[in-house]
Design a protein that fits this description.
Blueprint (H helix, E strand, L loop, with lengths): L6 H22 L4 H26 L6 H23 L6 H27 L4 H10 L3
Helix pairs in contact: 1-3, 1-5, 2-3, 3-4
Length: about 140
Amino acid sequence: MSRPLPAALSWTVLLAFAVAFAVAVVVLGIPLWLPAVYAVASVITFAAYGADKSAARRGAHRVSEQTLLTLGVLGGWPGALVAQQVFRHKTRKRSFRRAFWTSVVANVVVLIALIVVLEWAGWDVGVVRDGFVSLFE
């Protein structure tokens, strides 16, 4: 066990991701289903962390670390960051933190690669972006 990382780090990473995602929606016109996937995965992951913390307190069957990490890799890491701060859970175990932050970086890299590939494949971002902007005119 080690001292937890500063909570400000988690909140800063989460805020930066949310801003970058919002900019990508507006500027690149990424489809709204993509942030929706992250939102749904985050809610599920948040609930899994809450269930694991509750089980840990009761001495009941726990959610495996592998499951928590997998949920994060599948887009739930923003919910995991919030859950770690809200429940004060999984913030002290150094091996888990390393695996978690590695999975966050891997997820973001894959997301960026997906957006780049879709752009190269002819994703018509201008039409989507213009349609979104016209909603506010």
